[in-house]
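Researcher: We're teaching a course module on how sequence relates to structure. For the next exercise, students receive a sequence and then see the predicted structure as tokens, so they can try to spot secondary structure elements on their own. Here is the exercise chain.
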Amino acid sequence: MLSVVSSVAVVLVLVNVVCPQTVPNSFPHDYPGKPSGDFSPEWQNYYLVKDALPNVTFPLNRNWAGSIPVNRTNHPNDTLFFWAFESKNGSLTASANESSSEPWALWLNGGPGASSMLGLLLENGPLHIAANGSLIPNNVSWDKLVDYIWIDQPVGTGFSTAESDGGYIEDEDQMGEDFLNFLRNLVKIFPSLATRPLFITGESYAGTYIPYITKAIFSTPNPPVNLVKFAIGNGAMGAEPEYEDLPILTVIETYPQLIGYDTDVYNYFKEQSHLCGFDFNLTYPQNGKFPPVGPTIGPTDPARAAQLASRSPALIRKTLAAIARGAENPATGIVRRTRPALRREVVERERRRRRWIAEKKEAVERRDLTGRANGTIDPFYGCFLSSEIEDYALNFSLPWNLSQEIVIESLDDYGPFNPYNVPDARAPPLALDPTTFLNDNRTRTALHAPTSKNWTLQINYPFNSSFESGPGANVFGDPSVEPVSFFDELASNATARNVSVIIYLGNDDTVVPHFSSESECFNTTFGGIQGFTRKPSTPFTDDSGNFAGIVHQERNWTYALFARAGHEVPEYTPEAAFVFFREFILGNNETGLVTNSSGTSSVIGGEDPSLLVGDILPGESAILFGSGSATSTFVYPSATIAAWDSFFASVQSVSPTSGASSVSSPSGSSSPSGSVSPSGSGTLSGTSPSNTSGALRNRGEALRRTWVMQGVLVVALIWSWMF
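Model: And here is the predicted structure for the students to work with:
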């Protein structure tokens, strides 16, 4: 996914730690009526979904599904599975050169190894899985606008098949070649697709797939399709530290509830971000390239480093949580819970929180916060900041520290810390499971799906047909260089071919937070200029006039940040995503477009700097908690939030210099009290006194601030209400 969601029912290969597994072998199934000979429009009738789908009681547009080979030498059983829906009768079956101006689109999920049926059945397809397992229509499905095809890829993913003896892709270049061969066969079956405008869309690890597919198309003298635009949502386009650990400070700034609005904790994470080299500063336009982010600096203890290295990708692939988390760690008091905490444990957690704060403050106060000359990286976490903030929230921050930690491996689901959607602290979130539907033999037959394998949400993808990671491979075993390494070249070729680029993100995601993609955009030269020339701050709305997010357009690149959306934007904000797809991906809506007239730059739709605090679009104040379909929310007291807002505004008022972060501290520190608002009931509140004064002294002096915290009472009150 890296996705959910995600990102993400198997043991993964992590940093050369391998659990023995057998590489699966699978092959397509021949159903009655299969034509002979090469692909042609004659195959349309074979792939047409004619049989009724179980529990689908509503009409669907005509659709086609099945396995198409990728023409891999010596691997005839390597196929990609597709499910295609036409937007109107006859649109997908048009003859060659017919409807040449009518666009069509593809959707890819990520993983690597995640099925794109997740996108179809949970996000933007015409039928969706409900919480009770039933099928319901999606009134904002993207196939209402264009012919849409969801594709399981690379080979071996979802219902796609791969031979175990070398059939899986070696790297992303081979993936790109496989995909082009799939497209070559696809356009023989649906010949109008060869010339019609193609939009390639996807999310998460598709942020790696799509640039490699685009590179393959640009490198082919006579490509089989007419690519005009690609769109990547919350895409993993760089190295793992770039999209997971580097942006953690912006995650905290978006959702300070993760640290209980505690300014001391914020200053600690800000210092660690700087020491790890993660404090990139955006300018308009960008002045110089950001340095590459190397391998994450680990803890000083090698065993602890290996533990965190194996935990870090759990933020990307949820099912790893069960593998990476386990027993209590006496060194820090971090507890991984398998049951709700007892009342005495709640009090003990608060005591440990105080010790944690005292330990970090003591370390910080021993060194100069402005110069950082004597600063040191935390020896227990190193630069695995995503792991540290998760541990902190689960142990110290309301409401994450109230709930039992639950993992449902088969559904790629866990809580209460949901890295794909921060404000959902349910344990676990509402589970949506398409497995039963897709593996029903009636569905399998109707979709011409293989019988040699069962559909699974996510596989541990065996690059080079092996679970042994080769030299230079990333945490997923992928040996390919990250797409950002060739973004300048890709952007140049896109400009030359008039191919538009769209990067969109959900503001509530911590797996690929928005700042990671922003920094990658600002590190890319497109249209002759590096990055954007103005800060994105133009609002756009859904069809009901509700604020949907921020959109910015320059030189054929579009950037959008969705409010109230996690890793899978079409799942969390379906109406806003539909409007964005219609207006900005398919359409030519100019909202947010930078224009120049007589040397004066302006933005269509205007700019609203009040939407942002610095570069941050503030997140939601209410955090969901409970389990399943629970709608109870937790909100900190208004005074606590106001104190944070004042503090954060003061931080933003200090202009950072390149390569250094500035730290400031307000006169006062917020304390983690709060209110719980259960659905259909009143509010239970608790309070604790504000803390005393503090100030940042001149360079060479340490930060001294008295910290007093009395939050045990509110925790006990909330706990007694819940249990």
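Model: If you want an answer key for the exercise: The CA atoms of residues 18 and 468 lie 7 Å apart. The longest helix spans residues 343-365.
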